[in-house]
Amino acid sequence: MAYHPTASALPVNWAKASASNPNDNCVELAAHAGTIVVRDSKDPHGPAHFHPAWMFDAFLAAVADGTLAPTT
Fold this sequence. Notes:
single chain; 72 residues
């Protein structure tokens, strides 16, 4: 995983889920050079983390099939 100290400096279009918290308490995603970049919406000028697209796809599949379920 790669890291960039200033997410807002990246040449990407950030997006967040339409069902996200209206107080901006969520993560934002962007595609960049075969990776998925993630940042905290509360800190748009803070760090960004790069993940290979295949890894993000595996994460989404695990959430969808219940393999990665929230704990209480």
